[in-house]
Amino acid sequence: MKKCIARTYELTDKGFDYIAPLFILLVRLYLAQVFFMAGLTKIANWDSTIFLFENEYAVPLLSPAIAAYLGTIAELVLPVLIVLGIGSRWMILVFFIYNLVAMFSYSFLWTPDGSVGLTDHIQWGLLILMLLCTGFGKFSLDYLIRRFYLKMDKSE
């Protein structure tokens, strides 16, 4: 009986070990899509973007124009890096900080009418934290680079 239970746990663990990289990839693709689409929206409506950064978003330490440019660049570049899976933990830490700044600089999110948007940012933040803890998984350039250099180290 003990062997049967142990074998069941072993098979379950192996099954989840097998699907975990796919789940991590799906999380990466989801986050990339959300933020990339936000960046495209900023570009498509640049006058509105500048207006929002001047009148709605209270980004600390930056002028509204610089914050608008940096925010748009972040939303267009960081998702590409997430999809490729490169620079995972450092890049995702930047992404986490970006999400926090976005969340706290837009006071509307903290009103009853903005609670849905706040919930979105919290959920994205949790997914970003998950990636910070797990890395980008087997379906990433980071993984391939690591494997390449580990093979080189072993052959020397």
The number of distinct helices, counting runs of at least 4 residues, comes to 6
Beta-strand content estimate = under 5%
Major sheet details: none
In round numbers, the mean pLDDT is: 90
- Overall geometry comes to globular
Uncertain parts: none
Helix content: over 70%
Distance between the termini: 48 Å
Description:
The protein has 156 residues and is an all-alpha fold. The chain has one domain. It is 81% helix and 0% strand. It is globular, with a radius of gyration of 20 Å. It is a multi-pass membrane protein. It comes from Legionella israelensis. Keywords: Cell membrane, Membrane, Transmembrane, Transmembrane helix.
Topology (elements, then pairings):
Blueprint: H1 2-44, H2 46-55, H3 64-84, H4 88-105, H5 115-134, H6 141-155
Helix pairs in contact: 1-3, 1-5, 2-3, 3-4, 4-5
Question: Tags for this entry?
Answer:
single chain, 156 residues, transmembrane helix, cell membrane, transmembrane, DoxX-like_oxidoreductase
Short overview:
It comes from Legionella israelensis. The protein has helices at residues 2-44, 46-55, 64-84, 88-105, 115-134, 141-155.
